[in-house]
Amino acid sequence: MEPMMTDREMAKRKGSSSRRLKSSFKGGLNGSRVVSANQGNSPNDTSGNPRSNMKAGGVNSRSTRLNVGEVNPRNHNLSHLPYTHPKTCKPIRDVTRAILKPLMRNAKMLNLASFCKSQQMQKAEAVIIDGIRIGVLPNVVTYNTLIDGYCRFSGMDAAYSVLYRMREAGISPDVITYNSLIAGATRNFSLEQSLDLFEEMLQSGITPDIWSYNTLMHCFFILGKPDEAYRVFKDIILKDLSPHPVTFNTMINGLCKHGYTSNAVMLFRNLQRHGFIPQLVTYNILINGLCKVSRLRAAIRMLNEAVDSGLEPNAVTYTTLMKSCFRSRQYEHGFEIFSKMKSKGYAFDGFAYCTVIGAFLKLGRFEEANSCTEQMIKNDVGIDMTFYNTLINLYCKEGKLEAAYKLLDQIESRGLECDDYTHSIITNGLCRVGNIEGAMQHLNCVYTTGFASNLVALNCLIDRLCKAGQIDRAIRLFESMETRDSFTYTSLVHNLCKARRFRCASKIYK
């Protein structure tokens, strides 16, 4: 049995325990590890536990915080760091911001680029505003991304407003900024503006890169100045700018489009001698250029060369050759290419199908044309109004109006709506076969469904009425028209003069 302690001994033990408790709090706050003198003696001993000590001493737990050294990285993330000891809050907060700021900037840039690519420019602007609120200020990359998005989807005025904001923020445009602006102006056919921007870039002391020159070459080709484009190409070579394959393709394509196919082939051979390894797109450009000038054999040799070099021709390659065969009336050769494409499992687009269907119709092979049409509709390859208008036009040209009207039923069953082009094609097709009354009825039916006056269809109807000798009826239709163009007047006056009704023709112009 434990002997009784005197009051003096009890007071002494109590004072010792109090001092030990105070020293434990003092050590914990100073950053030293808290260790009890009696640690390990008893499982119920809590003198070494800071939380137990706080409870025992009645100390508010908010006044005592863990030291940075005690933070276990497995149990805490960066968001805990600013809430450590008050004396270390500011430097830790600064470090946290320094660590997180690049991450936040990268996240904002990814969001910005994503919104710009999806044409959501208002959301892209909102991302920039949110970034400014949290201290992530836009830089030259931010503004370049925004300018490129506006150039592609909104227009040059919006892009120029961003350029103005960029300069107001004290950020100087770079070569990427000007490349986006020049490309945007070229896409909008503001070609003089493209040249002015290139000159402005030079005056600003910014050195153009290969993409600047590529866009400038493309601009000159659109302007119909192949000599100027070739001069830019020579400057690229002389300045050792390391041309990109796009540079060569732009030059070759431009030469082919302007009728310099032989020069394009010569340039291609010269580039090959200097180590240029052409891609399939280069061969496709040359094959298309050769086909347009009716050099079908040279185009086939170019195709064989591409295959021998290890390239696999695609649907674009074969469709170009097939169309050239049909244009030069080598129909069987074209059908052979079509069968070859089917056997190799190539995916056909609407252009390829329409090319083959048109060839079948010209040869009077209507069953095969209908079969090809059904196959295309079954495969659901690019089924839109452009496709249907092309097919309807092909059938109407060959006088197959029943097949054309069947396509109108399919358009309705698919939930599509006929446009002005569709009704113009049908009206013209009915007039071609001499069914003028049917054409008039078709237009009246169209107007009752809410369509506006179709100028192209009415012009066609006036011309056919005149050719059928119904000039008075054509004049009445002319007088009822709300809008007219030069073709309307020319067609009517020409037919009136042909019928020797000169006085009536002179009144038309008045």
TrEMBL record:
Compositionally biased spans, kind Polar residues: 33-52
SUPFAM superfamilies linked: TPR-like (SSF48452)
Record's keyword annotation contains Repeat: yes
Gene3D superfamilies given in the database record: Tetratricopeptide repeat domain
Compositional bias ranges of the Basic residues kind: 13-23
InterPro entries: PPR_rpt, TPR-like_helical_dom_sf
Residue ranges of PPR repeats: 139-173, 174-208, 209-243, 244-278, 279-313, 314-348, 349-383, 384-418, 454-488
Cross-referenced PROSITE patterns: PPR
Feature: compositional bias, Basic and acidic residues: 1-12
TM segment ranges: none
Alphabetically ordered keywords of this record: Repeat
Entry superkingdom: Eukaryota
PANTHER family: PENTATRICOPEPTIDE REPEAT-CONTAINING PROTEIN 3, MITOCHONDRIAL
Record protein name field: Pentatricopeptide repeat-containing protein
